[in-house]
Structure formats: C-alpha cells, structure tokens
Amino acid sequence: MIEQLKLIIENAIRDEEYFHLFYKKLAELSQDEKIKEGLLRLSEQERNHKEKLESLNFEQLGTKVIPDKISEIDVAEEVEMAPIEEFSDLRDMYAFAIKQEALAQITYEKLREAVNDPEAKDLFQTFADEEKKHKLLLTGELALANS
C-alpha cells in the first residue's frame, strides 16, 4: 500500500510542478493584467501544493492507508503533459487546464477518503477545494476568451 500511495503522490507532485510552470507561461502570454495576476496566483498555489506533497512522510502515512480505498485510485504511470508550444491557442490551453484541474480535484478527494490521518485528510481536502476553485476560475476565463 505504501508503494501505491507513493506512486499516486509522485504523480501529483509531477502534475503540480507542470501546472506551476504552465500557469506561469500562460500568464506571460496573457495581455490582460488582471488575468495575468490570477494566473500567477494559480502558479504559486500549484508550487505550494508540490512543496506540501514533497514534505509528506510516506512511511508514516502509509500505515494509515485504507487498502480498498487506495486501490480505487487510478494510477496513471504516464499522464501526457503537452509542452506549451504544442497548444494552438490560449483557448486550447484553458480547456486542457480545466480538464486537468477537475481530475486533480477528484484524485485529492479520493486520497482524502483513502487515509485515516486527520492532518492528511485536511490537506487533501484543502487541495481538492483549491483545484475546484482553479477549475471555476479557468472556466470563467475561457468564457471571456470565447466572447
């Protein structure tokens, strides 16, 4: 179970780093200062998620894993994270990010249910809530871009 948890967290760390850089680059491409500031905040939140995930003690947390719950979490060995240059426009970038934020929210909600540790449950719930906010913010930005 510890290996399963470790793999899930390592994937989440990789994804958080990717989106830290993704939102930073998206901010650079944005012409609107308000949108740029929002994207930079998202970038920093993703960096913060990564740092908190890296600080988790797998050995300790692994003893508090609920086996049947952790096994319900899909572990994608390799989630394809496209280089920013491969997106055709900002709308595609927003659509991709919205989809990934929704998946991250679900993963953190499942992680919350898969551990018997109050601090870890709180952390994963906070991350799930923040990913949901990211998705809503990006959905709003995409709607503006499409109007």
How would you describe what is shown here?
The protein is mostly helical and 147 residues long. The chain has one domain (2-146): Ferritin, core subunit, four-helix bundle (Ferritin, Up-down Bundle). It has 6 helices and no strands. It has helices spanning 2-29, 33-54, 58-62, 67-70, 90-113, 118-146. Helix 1 (2-29) runs antiparallel to helix 2, helix 1 packs antiparallel against helix 5 and helix 2 runs antiparallel to helix 6. The longest helix is centred in the C-terminal third of the chain and has 29 residues, at 118-146. The N and C termini lie far apart (48 Å).
Helix content range of the residues, please?
A: over 70%
Note poorly predicted spans: none
Main sheet, how many strands, which sense, barrel?
A: none
- The total of helices stands at 6
Q: What is the architecture at the second tier of CATH? A: Up-down Bundle
Can you tell me the CATH topology?
Ferritin
Count of separate structural domains: 1
- One letter per element, helices H and strands E, the order comes to HHHHHH
Average pLDDT value?
Answer: 88
Structural class: mainly alpha
Cα-to-Cα separation, first versus last residue: 48 Å
Give the class-level CATH name: Mainly Alpha
Q: How big is the Rg?
A: 16 Å
Beta strand %: under 5%
